[in-house]
Fold:
Amino acid sequence: MAFSRAAKLTLAALLLAFPLLSDSFTAYQLGLYLLYGMVAQGIALCWGRAGFLPLGQALFFGIGAYLSGAALKADLGWALLIPAFAVACLVPALLAGLVGALVFNRQTGSGPYFSLITLALSMLGFQLANSLSGITGGFNGMTAIPGLPGIDTYETLYFVIVGVLVVSTLVLAHVMRAPFGQLLIAIRENEERLQFFGFRTSMLKAAAFGISGGIAGLAGALYAPHQGIVTPQAVGFVLSAELLIWTAVGGRFGLIGPVAGAVLIGFMAAGLRDSFRYWEVAVALVFILVVLKMPGGISGLFSAALSRFGGGSSTRHEAPTPQLLASKDQRAAPDLRFDTVGVSMGPVRILNGLSFSISRTGIHCIIGPNGAGKTSALNVLTGRLPLGAGEISWRGVSLGNTRPFIAARNGIGRKFQVPSIFPELSVRQNIEIALWANRIGTTEMFSMRPYGWTTQMLGELKIRFPFLMQSDKMAGSLSVGQRQMLDFSMTVLAEPDLVLLDEPCAGLSADETRQMIEAIAAIAGETKATFIIIEHDMQVVERLSDHVLVMHQGALLANGTMTEIRANADVARVYSGGSK
Amino acid sequence: MDLVVTYGLNFAYSTATLGLIVLGLAVVFGLLGVMNMAHGEFVMLGAYSALMVQQAGLPFVLAIPLAVIVCGALGWLMEWSVIRHLYRRPFDTFLATWGIAILMRKGVEVSFGREYQSVDQSLPGTVSLMGIDYPAYRLVLMAVIVTMFALLFVWYQRSNTGARIKAMVQNPDLAAAVGINTARLSRATFVTGVAIAGLAGVLLAPLVRVEPYMGLDYLLSSFFILVVGGLGTLEGLIIGSSIIGGADVVISAIFDKTAGYLGVLAISILFLWLRPDGIFSRR
Structure:
């Protein structure tokens, strides 16, 4: 969104003055395209922001249109029309939210399942609209819908549409700027990592889809009085596909792009559809090109040009009031129990009767040869692998077959061996998300205050890892060592009670390894959290920890101080410790 | 008794035709991991091939080579220009093939018109079977499909190419390292998949309404069959077809077509919750 505030105000003023500059018929046409643009904005929220693609968005638009058409035909008067419009907005929103919750709860990422379900729903809606002729008027549509009372459809309705569009754009812009919007980008970038911070990503995605459904319903509610007729085409897959094209061509990463796409292609289609036979074929070709070569669409080209000429503004939210969050200083004693845990993948038994318990704070190290099941033990604890046999509990809470966000909400934080960050977010934004983990409430996701949050630990980490102060640098452009440090910092900033670190020094230089070890030791000392570290490097193990667990072939082989482990004959037989 | 035979034959028929429709997508999505959103449009092109052959007054059988050539050539072009650059970017493949699907629909709409058309049956009449009269074309079609599946299964299990494909599916890098030309093999697999879709279109053309948007239904039912049956096995494909086809036939018979559609959707969502990898999963 490289448009400055002045540009946006000019745009709004131009829209309002349009009927004066042009004729009222063109303005009437523009009104329709602006309504389509509103729906496209919702698609942009889902697709450009959160990275999942709804293919049947017309369904929600059409439901809104039928509901508002029915209300207008009942001749209710404004006092009842306003709540009726609210219903026309809420029903599609709830339906979209429900579908999202049903599907996203079982599928992460941007897989095809969600998109095809939405496409199927739109086709189902089309069939229903055709067959329920008692309600919808069937194939011929719901006809003779009166205009809004007291508002001339061909003169003043246009201004109502512009007003609603401005309000909905402002609302969506706020949603995108607020922490909720930043979390949506994080979902697009690395959904699993966000789950390990305790966020139930399926619900965030369902909420985004619900918002887009509500906006589509609102646009549909104005479509009914604007057109005076609602046919099954309003819920169908053809309109759904066109909405997607407008979003893509206009630009799916912002809010102005989708509207521009709908207006531009709308007017061009009106002029060319009859004279140029291959118009729709050409539009489909443009869509393919945009998808492959120009993901930012037209507005992406604009903002690239603007930034080349030094214009444009990197609109960052106004600096909010800093707020120092209290750190956890009271922590209950750790109590982690693995009781004859078994995990199998097909015929392979990854964990085979693993039993151990940890009831003391401090740093505990797990060592063992490759394939011993070290990472799998952490995976089953955090719900990344299904528990086949046995019991796992943390402070009395059974964690067998849990899910990552539940493990995180129970105070278990985790850093993977390969650093896992949000590459397209800045260092500051990565850190903000870690600070929000297990702290941010639903209403705070839509307020700007959490951007001001900071903790004492963050200050200390910035001294330890100075690159964290380059807050606007994209996390994806950091070196491997810096990514490891950022990932580690994010893990501990969430202030979990049990910190799981999987080879935190992998890929680090000797100097960086020393820095990392010092940071781990310092933070473990200060926070009184319990650390479990998987490590191959014996020097690291020796410096950090006096309690070592040795795993071999999916079970515990030995358990004791470093000196005891060194003296253990079994350990010496299967595993001779060494240094890097 | 007659009713049981009729329903049994209808069930077998719907399973067989669905199996034929899904086969092309199973090859492309199951083996290459390319969710080809234009799958249904290749079925549609097959049906239009049958229509063109009929309009030219030629024998119906000629539609088969025509559809295979048309779909194979388009598939080759599509793989060469778009798909091969995107094998490891599933979301982009998904988007690009959806764009291609729109393009194919609009292209056919411009060339042939939006309206429904029909292809005449080349084998009209019925055959008396176990006390009931059943359409001859349907019986022949079922026999053709079963034979095709059997041949394909044996070929995939026994042939060298089948073994190479399996190697490529499991580990493309290793397959390339041991000297398998994976780029060529992927292209051949993709072209085969869409040509099978075209063939399905020809065989089904006399039984359905031919129109530019007919492909969407085939795409969705194919995808739901793969969700239910699981990717990468023939057993899953057949079980998935019989569950989806059976549910559709039964629910549509009791209520109506829309309810059947809703039932298929509900089953698919249920499977996502209970068996996210389908009944037979490769893993």
Q: What stands out?
A: Chain A is about 55% helix and 10% strand.
